Amino acid sequence: MKASPAGRLFTEIVLEVFKLSGQLTAEGDKLTQDVQMSSARWKVLGALGRAGNPMTVSDVAHSMGQSRQGVQRLANEMVELGFIALADNPQHKKAKLLLLTDKGVDVLQQLEQKQLPWAEACAQGIDAEALQITLDTLRKLERKL
Amino acid sequence: MKASPAGRLFTEIVLEVFKLSGQLTAEGDKLTQDVQMSSARWKVLGALGRAGNPMTVSDVAHSMGQSRQGVQRLANEMVELGFIALADNPQHKKAKLLLLTDKGVDVLQQLEQKQLPWAEACAQGIDAEALQITLDTLRKLERKL
DNA sequence: CAAATATTGACAACTTGTTGTCATACTCTA
DNA sequence: TAGAGTATGACAACAAGTTGTCAATATTTG
């Protein structure tokens, strides 16, 4: 059996996704190192910020496509550091709700201000339509997994 | 400062790349678990296979966009398991060349046969042109990092 | 209501991957 | 050729992330 052109392209995309993921994590670590953060913490804090409302650890993990326990560890650290507060969950006595503290909101805004010009610079010179197609295609692929 | 459309798209793509990377690693682990392999090992073995000629650990790490030491550890494991052999490097006494053993070639072929129909299924229903644009765009982004 | 099932947080072991240090091996330049 | 600088492998500490287990809490079902 030989690979179709689409199959070959898919494989190339997979390899590129792995490579990009590593490089983006490294960039994120640089961007966050001086505010007690990291790429991993930022992703969790960002998920909370983007949701706009308190979420359980499970919810956050699901939205990130990651395991519950990994997110739990990061969340615990950030509660300790004061970026996240725990609120009682009327639905579940053990599963507390995570919400951003003022400090959490603040650091998130700082990071977004740093990230913005960087994102603009990366997107610079790339056709907006190509970016849109890329995003759509990646989402389609993700749904097939 | 507000995000341009391209900047916003870029940020969405970044999040999608993180999510996809995790899911693809999980898929790869499923595909490889019964042949003493893993996603991480497969990536190294695959890089060697794709290159077609012996490479040093540094070369492989660079081609994968990963650190030298991470690849070193995986390579050492696979030498131990007999998937990779070490050959003297006329250019450098310490930096041995990695090459696939027969067992390594064999397992790589097995995995490629498993991966092929899966890649075809994932690519199914997605426009080949969109896949090409996605690949090109990801590569452009990678070069900007 | 009671029992089976699912969800959750804590804990622990493990894999993956990065960074840093050290000693050795190589390369380049003065 | 001597010395500075760079590349490499071994080793170790750490961060990130997965899986599994256990006990406590919810939920569903008979």
TrEMBL record, chains A, B:
GO terms for biological process: response to stress. It comes from the Bacteria. GO terms for molecular function: DNA-binding transcription factor activity. Residues 10-145 form the HTH marR-type domain. SMART domains: HTH_MARR. PANTHER family: HTH-TYPE TRANSCRIPTIONAL REPRESSOR YETL, TRANSCRIPTIONAL REGULATOR, MARR FAMILY. This is MarR family transcriptional regulator.
